[in-house]
Design brief:
Helix content: 25-40%
Strand order of the largest sheet: 1-2-3-6-7-10
CATH class: Alpha Beta
Distance between the termini: 12 Å
Shape: globular
Radius of gyration: 15 Å
Number of helices: 5
Amino acid sequence: MINKVIRIIEQEVAEYYAKRLNEPMFLAVGYYKDYDCISFSRNLPLEIKFEEKARDTYNLALEVSYNGKPSGLTSTRAKKWVHIVPIDKERMSCYEFDVEALREVTRNFQTFWGGDGKKSEMKLLPLNEAEKIATKRFEFSIDWSAYQPYWE
């Protein structure tokens, strides 16, 4: 179920950028390590992350390796990183970062291990710092009742 929810959230982000750029956005279907979404003009590849725990920890967890191999922030080819933190069940708060700037800011941050079997190496970015370095902040709401018939 969580994968379906994340997919809907990714679609909402893609819609936001399609309206902002006035061009279609395309989401990768299946595993694709370079980015999660890209504009029709191919000028804006996005990495999209949803993190429910950030609401309680006040940190964004940025994966930099998995199982000893570069992943997440270190391997993405996206230009922008969009990190989504739920405010409540319907409202989402989004932080947009320039990927290169985010890499630079977190370069010397302490590393933590977590995720599946603690195989993910991560850097924790405090939300108060994220607010300072985000290139854009935006919110959107999801009407989950519109999706309810498909889940029954």
